[in-house]
Here is the input.
Amino acid sequence: MRFRRDDLVSTAEFLVDVKIDGYEFVSYPRDRDMYTGNEIYAFVERRSADKHARENGDWYVEPLAPFLRNMIEALKDSKLVEIVETGHYYHLNNQKNMNENNLAFLKNKLEKMDFPVAVLDKLEKEIDVKDQKTEIKIGHEMNRGNETVNYELNFKQSDTTDMYFFNSYKATLNTGNEATDKSQDFRIRNGNNIGADEAFNLVAGRAVQKTMVNGDGDNYLAWLKIDFSQKDNYGNNKVEQFHERYGYNLDKALDKFPIAELAKPEEKADLMASMKAGNSTAVTMTKDGKDALLFIEANPRLRTINIKDEKGVSVRRDQLEIKDKSQSQKIGENQGQEKGQNSRKKQGLSV
Here is the structure.
């Protein structure tokens, strides 16, 4: 295969991106004197690549990893570069198939980032138009309880191919007053992408626990929270990170409060998973012998939790904290006896 250097660079970048997203095979036509990258399609499964090749003519199917390695080796040369090709070939190339492959790649990316099919439908209409734009913006709105977040997704066409890439998006918490709306730009980058659900909770002011990737490619766990009072070097709001060594233990923080859901392992696991995702999660707490429906969220900075009532009004923690072990034991015994009314309240109340 022969590429001009700029085309090979953009194609290699594309393949690195899709490889991280789980794509393992490529398919491309045989009889090209010069390749631009438009002809190379990526697939998650071999059978999908083979099916595409059979349906569309004479195309070659190859594992993505060695194909990409050949490209990287070829980039050490200059001007026209040659890549050794092996195996058998198939052939067909047209705009419709290229769009379908591009949409399949974008669909996989959007699904992994929690965006609904409606976003892809809007994007498909934009890509299929005769006079394609170099940049496409797609709007989307998400509602949860009394919170609304608007998204603006940015797609840009490659300078050297017709492929579109999902570059970034903006999430804005709609407060009903533009002056108090809270916005954050999220860039799409390998390893540290923030999904739509995570962005929803972050712009709503809550913390999210996420596995991140450092500069050496190693994973680490951290709580993320947007500090709307500070800007980074790019004019975006600063994102605080609270690493494991910071010492925030959600399990221990929850144990300080008379939370009914902690009595059962499954309910406790669901509660903690919801809070780590950044949700404001409904719980039942016992106060003065009475059960109260409250909403809690993680507060890694203070190593505790935030508590709000059904109207969203903050509740003082010291009014609910367990004061001694005897109180904790008594609550545990009471929580083992479910009341019909409370068990109904516990279902589906995470927002």
Notes: Confidence is low (pLDDT under 50) at residues 83-94, 338-351.
